[in-house]
Design a protein that fits this description.
The protein has helices at residues 7-17, 21-29, 32-39, 59-65, 80-87, 127-137, 155-164, 170-180, 233-267; strands at residues 50-53, 73-77, 97-99, 112-118, 138-149, 183-190, 203-209. The chain is an alpha/beta fold. It has a single domain (7-267), classed as Rossmann fold (3-Layer(aba) Sandwich), CATH 3.40.50.150. Strands 3-2-1-4-5-7-6 form a seven-stranded mixed beta sheet, sandwiched between helices. Strand 4 (112-118), helix 6 (127-137) and strand 5 (138-149) form a beta-alpha-beta unit. It is globular, with a radius of gyration of 18 Å.
């Protein structure tokens, strides 16, 4: 597991990243055209109920409520700091907002017509568990959509990324979806304008349809990580060390995107 691919570390990471997330992160790595292309796979309309799991500051949710009434779109995130930013956005005022865990969703089976999760899987300690939860809460014939990064082709970027958080291989996304029980699995490649590397995709949107009611097909072992579990002094020190080191890797990764974006603008 990567350094920030743990719930306590991710919680504190976003305590600070939330301060500049919409200003610095989204413009480089998760842009409006990428969001629009990804959400096409969800086949949204105004009659649906939608869960946005790992909704964060609500950037993806803003794309959802452009098609679905906000009162029908539930936002869930484990970070109160990210959701505080979402609460300040007028377009999201009517969205129910819950603190919760994407690997332990507080909803009954077969609750939502659509499940969307963007930029969250990279922090899940157990991605298969998170996707199994997506399957569980999606209604029969409903669609789940997972959006996330792909392991970078650039060697330096890959080393920083894999120290920081989870960057799955493209085939892992589809494998997790099929193992959970989703049918009609399809993937769409996504990239910001500055990304020019032809060796592999920058990110993926992967969707699947739940064929029947009930729980996922995959058998899961153990319990998910607990954000609120008490820690010993040694465990607290380990969390702090992983947080600092992982955040440093993330901080080094961001300028790579900035430099490549600047180069793309100069060429274009």
């Amino acid at each position: 597991m990567r350094l920030i691919q743990h719930k306590k570390e991710a919680y504190w990471f976003y305590r600070f990243l939330s301060l500049g997330y919409d200003r610095w992160v989204n413009p480089l790595f998760w842009t409006p055209p990428m969001r629009a292309a990804a959400l096409e796979l969800a086949r949204l309309d105004d009659a649906l109920t939608v869960l946005d799991a790992g909704a964060g500051t609500g950037f993806t949710t803003e794309g959802i409520v452009a098609r679905v009434p906000a009162r029908q779109v539930t936002m869930l995130d484990q970070s109160p700091h990210q959701l505080a930013r979402a609460r300040a956005k007028a377009a999201l005022a009517d969205c129910p907002k819950l603190l919760g865990d994407a690997e332990r969703l507080p909803f009954a089976d077969d609750t939502f017509d659509r499940y969307v999760s963007a930029g969250s899987i990279e922090y899940w300690p157990d991605p298969q568990r998170g996707i199994a939860e997506a399957y569980r809460v999606t209604k029969p014939q409903g669609t789940a959509l997972i959006i996330g990064p792909v392991r970078p082709a650039n060697r330096l970027a890959r080393r920083l990324a894999e120290a920081w958080m989870l960057f799955p291989a493209a085939e892992e996304y589809e494998g997790w979806m099929r193992a959970a029980g989703f049918d009609q699995v399809q993937a769409k490649e996504l990239a910001p304008a500055w990304y020019r590397d032809r060796r592999g995709p920058y990110a993926l949107a992967v969707s699947g349809v739940k064929p029947a009611p009930g729980p996922p097909r995959v058998a899961l072992r153990g319990a998910p990580e607990d954000l609120y579990a008490p820690l010993t002094a040694k465990q607290r020190a380990l969390v702090a060390a992983r947080l600092v080191t992982g955040a440093a890797a993330g901080a080094a990764f961001v300028p790579i995107g900035a430099v490549l974006a600047l180069r793309a603008r100069r060429r274009g």
